[in-house]
Amino acid sequence: MSGVAARAARTLDGMTGTGEEREGTGRDGPWWWERRRAALLDVGLAAVSAAECGLEGLPFAREAGIPAALGVAFGVVVGSTLLLRRRWPVAVVLVGIGVAPAMMGFLLGVVGLYTLAACEVPRRVTVTLGSMSLAATFVVTYLRTRGDVEADGLLVVVLSAFMAVALTLPPVLLGLYVGARRRLMESLQERADSLERELSLLADRAEERAEWARTEERTRIAREMHDVVAHRVSLMVVHAAALQAVAEKDPGKAVRNAALVGDMGRQALTELREMLGVLRAGSPGPEPRPAARGRAARVAPALAGSGEDGPRLAELEVLVGQSRAAGMSVEMVVHGEAEPYPAEVEQTAYRVVQEALTNCHKHAPGARVVVRLAHREGEFAMQVQNGPCGADGVEPGLPSGGNGLVGMRERVLGLGGVFVSGPTDEGGFKVSAVLPASR
Known about the structure:
Strand order of the largest sheet: 1-2-3-5-4
CATH topology of the largest domain: Heat Shock Protein 90
């Protein structure tokens, strides 16, 4: 018995018992109690047990031949050990078993067995101590009943067995049920906390993804606005500078340049309105007119970068012609046979050439520009190279945001292509890109 008690005491050191004190979230109880009401409950039970054992100490003192005061004091001390039921439930049960021959500690034994079964003690310890309590109760009841009742031996055995089972089995079963239920609730609570943490983490990740998507969308829209509008505005500035230079010398050329500036300005405004209409399409508002819906349908693919109605490679001749009309010396060289490419590949190629020509207008006025296109097996390559600025070139004074090369690189790399840019040995600048022919 002492070996079992020692092992169980080491196992249960610092362990709480029934879990009643675990209700709530904070700790406000003294000593080993986590809740104040749990401490008050144990103090009340200990007081009742001490009173009970104190009264039962009187007959025990008479039978043992010791002073009554000593018997009462012994009973009070024994009953008060119930105060330790949550801290050392094994010790409380052992005390109850030890005083069973003295016929005291009824409440102590019942509550001790319940606490032992409900706490997180190994089941073999519970079974061992429960069996010891059952045997002790049976033996004491049998010995007491056989001497006090005139009956046959079978009746005494049955009565003793009934008392032993009635005082041992119910508190043990109730404790096992309460302990299992408590552990189940704790498991469910832990699972709920885990799910709450996972939901919070998913919400944070969703917010991060949404923020990333918003940033990507703003970057994409800014890139499209830059590519679609900046080119025409750059040509307008170039024509306006030429118009200013020839206004007095050649009125006819000035008129033609003024007409070109007006046409390009109207085209730039049309494209800007169409793109803004697409951006507003996602917000609630009145139903757009059929003409506005048609323009939005034409421009939406340009914003998305993967539609069917965006700019194509066939329109590069027109793009180069606009630069020639602005006074730039541009030559376009095509190698290989043209073949159909995916819409996003053709649109990206068009935007790269467009932005490269815009940069030539901004940073290399009067320079000779060569646009090379190569249709190869499985890929499409392009190169826009300008020489040094011409001596008689007119400086247009165009502002630069420094985002043109960044936008071209993002477009090409987004399709899995290769992009290279940098100065040449002759003092010019070169932009090269290779796009896969299929995605």
